[in-house]
Amino acid sequence: MKVFAGSSNLPLAEKIALLLNLKMGEVELSRFPNGEARVWIKDKDVNSRAIVVQSFSNPPDGYVMEFLLMVDALKRMGVKKIIAVIPWLGYCVQDKVFRYGEPLSSKVIARILQAIRVSKIITLDLHNETIAGFFDMNFEHLRGRNVFIDYFKKEKSIDCIVSPDVGALKNATFYAQELGLPLTVINKKRDLSSGKVSIVGISEEIRGKSVLIPDDFVSTGGTLIQAAKFLKENGVKNVYAALTHHFYVPGVQEKIEASQLDALFVTDTIKKPDKDYKKLKIVSVAKLVANSIKLK
């Protein structure tokens, strides 16, 4: 069995292959002059089983298409069982229909992935875990928080867990229980006329402590930056955040670097830019994914 990687996250695919003691398959990925994806599995020595790694990150449409073509190419070469590792399942944030005339985008992606008939899909931290119910197939939803909990158990640098809002309370409670730490919640209110959300307080006194804010992803960074500012103004010593997915929207990490957040811990579900950032800390999910494949 070999690991075949699309162009979205080659470094993670290579780490998974190394942990599983597997070789990387040779793939040539390019574009036709009209912009269409061109895929060529150059590896002639393919097994009846394969692993395909591709995050549906930016640009999601291009990476989805690239993934579909890779799977089809492998099947035409005789591969019978394909394990699809999709660390970030693009469109999973679009899990509701808010207005008449809108699609249920996450379900559309689920139908497309089922249509190509891979044997199994492994993904991490869906925005809404009920999305797993859209898949009538072998679907494994891993938790990125497990790698963070292992990391902070060793570091022992956190005094308290802070839930960024009531909606994230369930996940924050898990962190608090696993790390044996107290939990506090940031209380917010929304201006009914402008729609602007502001922080009005916290549920417990955490002055002088080092705190960790856990969540599933960072997109614009606005909420995180606002929370860090509020906590520092209220006497918190250090503010850290642990978020599974970082979308690396242009300019966002620069804003985080300039903010009062002391460090942002993310996983490698999405490939980081080549530029290094002082506050950005990467914790790999490769072992988590590899162990999931080993167990099956």
Characterization of the model:
The protein is an alpha/beta fold. It folds into two domains: 141 residues, 3-Layer(aba) Sandwich (Rossmann fold), CATH 3.40.50.2020; 139 residues, Rossmann fold (3-Layer(aba) Sandwich), CATH 3.40.50.2020. Helix content is 30%, strand content 27%. A hairpin with a 6-residue loop joins β10 and β11. The radius of gyration is 20 Å and the shape is globular. The mean pLDDT is 92.
Principal-axes geometry comes out as globular
Biggest sheet, spatial arrangement of strands: 11-10-9-12-13-14-15
What is the domain total for the residues? 2
- Continuous helix count: 8
Strand fraction: 25-35%
Task: Please give the CATH architecture of the largest domain.
Answer: 3-Layer(aba) Sandwich
Report the C-alpha radius of gyration, rounded: 20 Å
Q: Mean pLDDT across all residues, rounded?
A: 92
Report the biggest beta sheet as strand number plus sense, adding barrel if it closes: 7 strands, mixed
Our measurement of the CA-to-CA distance between the termini, rounded to an integer number of angstroms, reads 14 Å
What attributes characterize this protein structure?
296 residues, 27% strand, 8 helices, Rossmann fold, 7-stranded mixed sheet, alpha/beta
